[in-house]
Amino acid sequence: MNKILYQVLDNLNEGIVLLNEELQIIYWNYYMEDLTNLKRYDILNQPIVDILPNFSMRYYLDAFYDVIEQGTIRFFSGAIHKQMLNNTDHFNLKMSRIENEDKHFIQLEFMNVTSQFNQIKQLKSYVNKLWDTNRELKEKEKIIQKLAYHDKLTGAANRSLFYEVSSSLLLQAKRNKTLLGLIFCDVNKFKSINDTYGHEFGDKVLIHISQLLEKSARESDLVCRYGGDEFVILLPDMKEVDNYNIVASRIVKLTRKPVKIQNITISLSISGGISFYPIDADTIDQLLVKADAAMYAAKQRKGTETYFYRME
Amino acid sequence: MGSSDMTQDILKELFNISVGRAAGILSDIVGQKIYLNVPNVKILKASSESYAIDEYISMKKNGTLMVSTLSFKENYTGKASLIFSAEKMKTFISLCLQEEESDSDDMDFNDVDFDIIKEIGNIILNCIIGEAGNLLNISFKYTLPEVRLFNAMEFKYDYRITDTVYVLILYITFVIGDTEIEGAIIVDLSLHSLNDLLIRIHRLEESLYE
Questions:
Q1: Which of A45, A242, A243, B68 could link B145 by a cystine bridge, Cβ 3.0 to 4.6 Å?
Q2: Between A and B, how many CB-CB pairs are < 8 A?
Q3: Each residue of A11-39: pLDDT tens digit?
Q4: Contact B176/B95 with Cβ under 8 angstroms?
Q5: Shortest CA gap B170–chain A (Å)
Q6: Chain A residues with CB inside 8 Å of B130's CB?
Q7: Inter-residue contact A308 to A248 (CB < 8 Å)
Q8: Which residues of A176-206 are buried (b: 16+ CB within 10 A; e: fewer)?
């Protein structure tokens, strides 16, 4: 019978080791021989800690003691105990007690889980790749969205974004019974700047003006490049008409000194017209027309310095 | 102090010694200091009272529980389960393996994760049941824990449909690094088994008064 049982243990596809109470090896199956290159006849009756030095760690010795004394079953996972038998494979280990003729023995079962580890590693690598691809796609989506709603040269909002935002701000102003201001402005003598210094320089001027307007606007305002050298600023939640002066005076201040662009020092000025919902018009298009007309009136009054005008 | 308070205090003392030992073993294994504490122990009638697990284990309302369950064999029938919020266990697994936690917030666990929880459940439940058995002079025989994931609601239901009359609940706090994890251990013994256990604790109580 013993012979049959030993053959069964030798046929198992997992490592089986039996220890006596002195922790000496009394059985070592074929699987263990293959795995460790240690033949059972060379190691029988030797202490397990001499053959597998990792098992001299305190928690293994404590576990042997618990299994022998209390008959508890212990489990060690290959994930935490990485080099249980060798440096390449991963094993789960189950320790349990066997009783025979008032003697206690420890059965060690080493279950090879290396293929599970490899599959999980591969899956994790796929998941990480997918995660990265997804992140890249989201970033690209943001860029596409920015391109669709922002001016390529200056980075300011474009007309599409202006119309989307302005209609919702108009609704909000109607609902909350507040003023919505709209400044229409352009760069004085921009055509002559372009003709004198070239289009590349003109582009740099537009970038500078766009940044200057952004700096002057409040956080809730929207600065939009409407076309050419024309910019529109939406001013939501205005309590009084005169409050637009906060933004206008900042623009005046920032255009007071000449600027240096591409090593050329130049004085820049802006003319602007302003209109308000609901005082001047009810629709965005009407507000634009009114503000545009006010801008031309401003230009006629002071065409070479920064000046804002509202038609009464 | 009433007799049941005294019983619960003895159990609390007993189980704090046990989890202290489990914490020592776990600290050795993962190479990081781990603290375990049992702040409260309750004996509840399963049919009439709520286990209030989700009140103690901080988790989302429809959260997932990770449950390691062992079954008693031979003289004692029933089960003992170690319960933690699955979300927190994900952090714990990463801390054990000293790996960075992945950015994704999925609750997928692989076989390797389950094995880690099985080992932890094995250590904690072994210490609790083994040392309780030692002190009470009872030899419990039981299986290795099986690890399963439950929806918090399902888990309550799963226990309520068993014919268990009394359950022993240990609230347990697990601290590793800066992470604190609350969990619970439910010892679900048959009436006969629990009576036997309580009689032995009463004997311990009496010996304290002698």
A1: B68
A2: 70
A3: 999 999 999 999 999 999 999 999 899 99
A4: yes
A5: 21
A6: 66, 70, 72
A7: yes
A8: eeebbbbbbbbbbbbeebbeebeeeebebbb
Contact criterion met (CB < 8 Å) for A59 and B29: yes
This prediction's pTM: 0.65
Q: Is the Cβ–Cβ distance between A17 and A108 less than 8 Å?
A: yes
| Average pLDDT across chain A, whole number | 91
Q: Which residues are bridge partners to A276 per DSSP?
A: A181
Closest-approach residue (CA) in chain B for A58: B28
* pLDDT > 90 in chain B, percent: 6
Residues of chain A with pLDDT under 50: none
> What six digits make up the tokens of A20?
């006596």
8 Å CB contact of B122 and A113: no
Q: Stretch B172-190: mean pLDDT, rounded?
A: 82
Q: Is the pLDDT of residue B191 over 90?
A: no
What's the average model confidence in pLDDT over B57-72?
74
Q: How far apart are CA A94 and CA A75, in angstroms?
A: 5
Inter-chain contact A120–B142, Cβ cutoff 8 Å? no
Helix (H) or strand (E) segment spanning residue A83: none
Shortest distance, CA B30 to any CA of chain A (angstroms):
7
**Shortest Cα–Cα distance, B141 to chain A (Å):** 8
